[in-house]
Amino acid sequence: MIDLAILGLLTEQELHGYELKKRLGELLSSRASVSFGSLYPALARLEAQGAVKAVEERTSVPSAPMSGSLVGELAAFRARVRESGLVKGTGRGKKVYGITEHGRERLVELLSDPDVTDDRAFTLRVAFAPHLPDAARLELFERRRTELLRRRDDLRRRESDPGRAGRTHSYLRALLERDAENLAHDLAWLDRLIEAERSADHNGADRSIPVPAPQAHLQEETP
Amino acid sequence: MIDLAILGLLTEQELHGYELKKRLGELLSSRASVSFGSLYPALARLEAQGAVKAVEERTSVPSAPMSGSLVGELAAFRARVRESGLVKGTGRGKKVYGITEHGRERLVELLSDPDVTDDRAFTLRVAFAPHLPDAARLELFERRRTELLRRRDDLRRRESDPGRAGRTHSYLRALLERDAENLAHDLAWLDRLIEAERSADHNGADRSIPVPAPQAHLQEETP
DNA sequence: GTCATCATGTAAGCCGTTACATGATTGC
DNA sequence: GCAATCATGTAACGGCTTACATGATGAC
Fold it and tell me: Is the pTM here over 0.85, yes or no?
């Protein structure tokens, strides 16, 4: 999850941890924003694996020092010491990360995972779908579609289960209805996405507005 | 989460762990079913807190032993030893739990928690809403409604953010649309629930079909 | 008599969180 | 100079999962 998010964002732009967290927060509507306590260790782990690398580290002032350059000099010195690798402990200052070739491969690997049962992970994967080859992207959507159909069948089986008809009160019925409607809605959305993907120009031309406005969509069984 | 599920189910019926897990699985559509590894420790914890109590424990054959009663005798002996509390280790056999008065209080407490941000927890709370007084139940729904309205506003603010218009590709737009539609749908469902709650007979009479069919519903702002 | 299912439990580990600790930069 | 924000990290802990270990019951 968090690896996917980090690699996806770093593919688009070099960023440091703090900024990464902000982007993540706005990418996944409020929910799903990770905490620093998991972000920084994850970055360190990915760096150790060679999936990302520290590109730049600014501690000293990038522009001219304002007054007493003593502070700036000291900071620059500390930065140099840190860069030399002598001090590992609490090296502060901005640490900008970029993705490596290995990181790009890892991202595609994560995006290609056949498991599409995790809803939050799927959302993330759609967000980074542009980094997947056309065929793999379509396959991802199709697999998700199969998963949603499976869930719908599960739900219908439960709806028509005679054994529990007695102990299903109104609130349970309401929840069941909500689930069914949500599922149908999600399926319709996915169908639109797949349709757009299929009808898109796959010869390298423009793909700026591939998702059409809500309209009639295909559905194999009755809705 | 798991405490809520256990207490809710045990309020309705005495059950043992294994059965509890099955019920949980069918209650929360496939997703959300807990594993034994968390269920049994949770039961033990709740028992230690006095929220549930072991009602019955059957290890020996309830009916007449079939042939060599030696095995049955041994099992019965072991059951007796276990009941005496001398052996704590691996006491097998069915352990049926029931809820206590304290457990019922705890359930109401969990259902009354002001935090309605957790979607899965809210679903569970609706499932056990009948165990809440009318006023508290309505308050739960209203608080959830406020939370959903907050999320919708968040989403709209993000939709009309000029700063990120550039780096929002088609898939991100599609996700944003999906979120907005899901949210609107959830709100409509909640509004129906609240309306049904308000118009329900709160004088102790029939409440078998309080949730009306989908129809026009109120909404303060434009949809 | 053995296999599937029912039934209970423990241990290790994963993945995330909150709380804590530190320090740099910028605006007033 | 000092507060707010930016920025990075560590430590403790929480809740849940998988894998493991054990045993009972019933069907064939």
Answer: no
